[in-house]
Structure formats: structure tokens, C-alpha cells
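ESCALATION

Customer reports they have been waiting on this structure for their group meeting. Please prioritize. Original submission:
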Amino acid sequence: MKKGLLRKVLAGTCITFGMLVVVLAVHIYLVTRPKPINADMRIMARVDFRQELNKDDAAKITAFLYHQKGIDHVLCNPAGKLVVFTYYPAKTSAEQIIGNLNLGLPYAGTRFLPGKDQLASGCPVAATSFTYKAYHFFNHLF
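Update from on-call: job pushed to the front of the queue and completed.
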């Protein structure tokens, strides 16, 4: 009698575990798929400047960017000579915003795009985590 109950419990546990693995795999697949651009999507971009910036320059750049179409939020760091902003890609693009910035203000700004080595070293936990390994597995599977 005990053997039959043990088999049922073990079979139920294995089936439950298998179903949870399948649910996790489907979840990872759905979350990591590229998403189409929609009206609610926001993207972050960074602009680096060559010349020194002061607080007045930062205020001018911030005000200028807030008046651009599709801008959501702007942060200007004059000490770091950079601006970080979020925008709606359904309304505009980062290249268009930066082009308008360079044409409208006397500052030479270029978009910062990280290289492959910088992307790889971005998060030391991500490359060794179980989630990353599962993402990598399912990304190459489909």
C-alpha cells in the first residue's frame, strides 16, 4: 500500500515539475521576443558633448529637448558633458532629436552607442545567471 502511494506522489511531483518547466520556457520565450514599436514604448538615448558645459548650458539643452516632439524626460549632466533622455520611437527617432539639437543649439553632440565589449561587460551577473542561460538556450532554439 505504501509503495503505490509513494509512486503516485512521485509521479504527481514529476508531472508538476515538468509543467512548471514548460510554463517557465514559454514565459521566457514570450518575454524575450523583440517587441514591435507601439505608442507606449519608450527608449533611452545618451548624447555626449565635446565642449565643457555649465549650468546655463545644461538648462538651455534641457529646455530645448523638452520642446522636441516625442521627448518624455531629459537629464543633463554638465560635469559629465552628457545628456540622457527618453523618447517615444513611434513619434521620432534619436537621430532626428540629436540632429535638431546640433542644428538648434551651438553644441556639438554625438549619440553614445556602446561597443560589443561594453555590452558584454555591462552586468557581471547576467552572463552567469540561470535566466540568461535559459534565455540564450531558447533564443538559439527558435
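Sent to customer with the following note: The longest strand covers residues 43-49.
Escalation resolved.
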